[in-house]
Amino acid sequence: MNIKTLQILLILSILILSCKSHKEINRLASELKCDKTIEFIFDKQSNTVQIEKVGPSIGESKIPNYELTFNRAVEELNENITSELKVTETIGFPTDSILKIKVKIDKIVWNFRTADAVMNTDIIFYFDNKEIKTTGTNTVYMHGTKKGNLRKSIKSGIYEFLKIKCK
């Protein structure tokens, strides 16, 4: 093998590894069964959370719209789970068939390391006078944007919640 072929194989391996955790969440979510439809209500105070960068990084990407990014993460999970997940604007009252959950992004840390960058998003879920905290994680090995990493780390955090709430 020549150097060019090795470089291409290395790049392809890194790209495949970058997608692994994201695709793994899709697969694992498909195994969950929630007994109710879950309606998430995005807490607008989440929009005030800053992305904290740790370590050296190169370049800047646009700050994403947190609410739209959250909505997309829920949509992606909904495509892979047997139960129904929705985003709604109103809290209203829970019913026998619908669980209403207020969701707040509490903290976002993007840790840049030598070989990768890890985004951790702390999320708080409020429902039935209970509070459950999770941390969603996404790791990239080459290049990542705030929007893409945030969507995947939020998706991971929602999945962690669903693991607790659904069987």
Overview of this protein structure:
Helices cover 37% and strands 31% of the residues. It is an alpha/beta fold and 167 residues long. Strand 4 and strand 5 (117-127) form a beta hairpin. Helix 1 (3-29) crosses helix 2 (66-80).
| Strand fraction | 25-35%
Number of alpha- plus pi-helical segments = 3
Order of helices and strands: HEEHEEEEH
User: What structural class do you assign from the helix and strand content?
Assistant: alpha/beta
Shape assignment: globular
Please summarize the sheet with the most strands. Answer: 6 strands, mixed
From the alpha carbons, calculate the radius of gyration and give it in angstroms.
Answer: 17 Å
User: How many E strands?
Assistant: 6
Q: What portion of residues is helical? A: 25-40%
Global mean pLDDT: 86
Low-confidence stretches: 12-20
C-alpha end-to-end distance: 48 Å
What topology does this entry show?
Blueprint (H helix, E strand, L loop, with lengths): L2 H27 L7 E6 L8 E4 L11 H15 L4 E4 L9 E15 L4 E11 L2 E11 L5 H20 L2
Parallel strand pairs: 1-3, 1-4, 2-4
Antiparallel strand pairs: 4-5, 5-6
